[in-house]
Amino acid sequence: MNLREKAQIMDTAGMKRALTRIAHEIIERNKGVENVALVGIRRRGGPLAERLAKKIEEIEGIKVPVGILDITLYRDDLTTLAAYPQVHRTEVNFDVNEKVIVLVDDVLYTGRTVRAAMDALIDLGRPQCIQLAVLIDRGHRELPIKADFVGKNTPTSKLEIVTVMVEEYDGKDGVIIQEVVDE
Fold it and tell me: How many whole angstroms separate alpha carbon 51 and alpha carbon 19?
């Protein structure tokens, strides 16, 4: 499969602005952050959750707990991924019971990743509620899942791919849309 960059929809500054706005919205929705914890969906949701926590601490002066959730074994397409899928550690080192958990991910597409994340999270305990923060909502839902906090709504074709890059893994920040090309 050959991909060609179609458009850059967010640069470093745009990502920073979107995450700052999401942090303010999380604080406002929850009337503070005393009972809030952030859980990033592995892979790029982790760094985004860490950045949100830093921004919330700058605004509120309160350090919110941050965890990282591996959803590999909860996916409904596990058998189509690989013969031996790579499983990573879930790193949620706090009690999720009765907490407001904000799941954080890079792109919301079909909703299946979020469904798997909720299953994995509920295996850890019973949160007071689960909210969802995503950097990009690209549409095309297959499950009735809607983000509470969205950095940018970006309507896309099913033939396009939205790629979020984060400094921690990719050496730079940004969001691009790619399209499949025949070569």
Answer: 8
